[in-house]
Amino acid sequence: MALNIAVLPGDGIGPEIIAQALRVLEVLKKEGLDMTFTEAPLGGQAYDQYGHPYPEFTQDICRKADAVLLGAVGGPQYDTLDRPLRPERGLLAIRKDLGLFANLRPAVLFPELANASTLKPEVVAGLDIMIVRELTGDVYFGQPRGMRTNEQGVREGFNTMIYSEPEVRRIAHVAFDIAMKRGKKLCSVDKANVLETTEFWKEIVIDVAKEYPEVELSHMYVDNAAMQLIRNPKQFDVMVTGNIFGDILSDEASMLTGSIGMLASASLNESKKGLYEPSHGSAPDIAGKNLANPIATILSAAMMLRYSFDNEAAATRIENAVKKVLAAGYRTGDIYEEGTKKVSCSEMGDQIVAAM
Ligand code: IPM
Ligand code: MG
Fold this sequence. Notes:
By secondary structure, the protein is of the alpha/beta class. The protein has 2 domains: 1-101 and 269-356, 3-Layer(aba) Sandwich (Isopropylmalate Dehydrogenase); 104-268, 3-Layer(aba) Sandwich (Isopropylmalate Dehydrogenase). It is 40% helix and 19% strand. It has a 10-stranded mixed β-sheet with strand order 2-1-3-12-11-4-5-10-8-9, with helices on both faces. Strands 6-7 form a two-stranded antiparallel sheet. The model has no long low-confidence stretch (mean pLDDT 96). Bound molecules: 3-isopropylmalic acid and magnesium ion (MG). Residues 88, 91-92, 247 line the site of 3-isopropylmalic acid. 3-isopropylmalic acid binds next to helix 4.
């Protein structure tokens, strides 16, 4: 049966990077991997066409798909829209709608890029961290939320940080399962010294740990984790944390690898249906200029083959093609350094397709 893939290019550099990922997937399709691609709009693109960042048209296509491949959403022209209509809300809505609670963000340093990191090469060489971020709860979705004028006539903004036990249990299981397949080390990140929500989180993680005696579990406050990621990132194997801390720490971790343009991600639901997207944003400043780095999106397509379609061979083949192209010295602007060959977004695509 054909693998039914919904493709959501989105805004900014989204269409450019998605085009390159599709070219890579087309190579596999020509060789016989049965895939169908159905495009739909999300974010600002969807607002322009349908007046909503996650319109019914897109909901239908995504609900029927086996997996979703997404570019990026957002742009300055949408910043003045009513909050529920902004592109980012489309992204949050699709995550919630498809129940994509487990966000996997691997931060892996390709040896060729050791000098592209702002940290010393010896600090990051060999880096391979998996950040497991809870994606459908926390202060991102907690109610009540909003802006109001209080009884004293003072304006205020408010959100609610909340996690239920089942939410913490299921993400903890995902993280422990991943740790079992890797270095068997899991660090749970919280702010249990101040926030009850995360004190509760820690308690549940400790309970789930009883089912995984082989995994070495540690706990770290999020401020310390932010520091340790810069000081000695190789101490980490798998990290698990809530939505907001995961958002922040995964951006930080991406820079250890040289560029956020390298960081893929998978967001999975309970039946392994997944949405795959680069961890970076829509980069409106370089949109339409053929300058973006398509590698995070191409690596996200590889994650799709691995996690939703159990096709380890195809996933590895894409990853090896990326390695080969980096080893041959090709670099987009974000990872360029003297002595390497600077290429455009589509030229990077050409090279990776050729290396396949
Ligand atoms: C991410 C992004 C999103 C998030 C934004 C665009 C809503 O920063 O995927 O990390 O905060 O989750
Ligand atoms: Mg983010």
